[in-house]
Amino acid sequence: MAVDLSQIVKAYDVRGIVPDQWDESLAELFGAAFARVTGASAIVTGHDMRSSSPGLSGAFARGAAAQGVDVTEIGLCSTDQLYYASGTLDLPGAMFTASHNPARYNGIKLCRAGAAPVGQDTGLTEIRELVEKWSESGAPESAATAGTVTRRETLDDYAAHLRSLVDLTSVRPLKAVVDAGNGMGGHTVPSVLAGLPLTVVPMYFELDGSFPHHEANPLDPANLVDLQQRVREEGADLGLAFDGDADRCFVVDERGEPVSPSAITALVASRELARNGGKGTIIHNLITSWSVPEVVEENGGTPVRTRVGHSFIKAEMATSGAIFGGEHSAHYYFRDFWNADTGMLAALHVLAALGGQQGTLSALVDQYDRYAGSGEINSTVDDRSARLAAIRAAYEGRDGITLDELDGLTVTAADWWFNVRPSNTEPLLRLNAEARDQATMTRIRDEALTIIRG
């Protein structure tokens, strides 16, 4: 029976409800299709702590092996640990995770050798078409000789590699509260932070894909509340929160106040530029703060503005040879990590920066957090194109205002800017606004929302 995968094959990955939208039989076909499209003789797979992940990952491995491909399984891992394996082994990879989505969901993040991204324009469309064809006509013909499936441990090597990329020798003793959200941070953090002069206060390190304490999505402020309270109670120097597959890291300061991902991007950019002699290209998406390109230029670097989304960031990093990239969503990309994103490496940079001086984190990041921002505000709308057209009509032709359509619509003035862009997967428009002061930001934000919401 033919299946329609349009609801689960997204722009950058596969994601859907198990077993309603996909199951192990489809995972096996995805494995075979991945083998065909990449043309690889060997691949590497890993999975998160969700109850469905081992079965889906194993089925994918069977499908690939039936096509004659040797499969290295690294088992439980974070997404950036899978990227490490793909990079260091120079193999295409498949990570089974639904990141921060609820427990019923699962998915696959795919990459080519060296952690190069796979998205709709770089192989995912072909993979989807093969799986749909085979689901109707039957499984593909097996290779004359099946591939092997072997296990390999990578956690210690992954942790050592990350620590080799940050100078942690002069870090003073710090107390850090870490909220793993019952996700893969509970697996990786103990190894990565081992041996550092840190008192780690663990929260929700137990691997549990039902997420009993809160969603493993630190982008939602509600999911930071426990961490913020614990940082204050412990008198800690900072708090770190990871999402379900531990590829994103959010930071709170010693007061329990969230540090914007733009400020972290600027901080890490300044450190990576210093590591590279004060030269290099830094990628930032178009809704990071004005602070980011300013700090990059102040530290001798060249900022490059891109669309939102890891496939665009990674492609631009590869094209430009950028040393670092950051997004508002707390994805951080490093040239020395195969241009892939790793929140854990960003966390090490924060620890090194804070521990290398005597001040507080709030004082340290103040220099990188210069403007008033709205954060991302989502609005459900019936006709996204009509709403975007209404915004354009409202601002086009005004003195001192420019418009661009790199990603959605960005409206920029001397003292403020805002961007409105459609969601890839939902009937939403996403608004981000920033200004030189809070009053102006509030005015511009509300003006834009009035038009968006009709």
Automatic annotation (TrEMBL):
Keyword Phosphoprotein assigned to the entry: answer is yes
Cofactor (UniProt): Mg(2+)
| CDD domains to which the protein is assigned, alphabetical | PMM_PGM
Q: Which stretches make up the Alpha-D-phosphohexomutase alpha/beta/alpha domain? A: 7-136, 156-256, 263-371
Q: What does the UniProt keyword field contain?
A: Isomerase, Magnesium, Metal-binding, Phosphoprotein
> Is Nucleus included in the keywords of this UniProt record?
no
Superkingdom as given in the UniProt entry = Bacteria
**Domain Alpha-D-phosphohexomutase C-terminal residue range list:** 376-448
Record family assignment: Belongs to the phosphohexose mutase family.
Protein name according to UniProt: Phosphomannomutase/phosphoglucomutase
Q: Which organism is it from?
A: Streptomyces chlorus
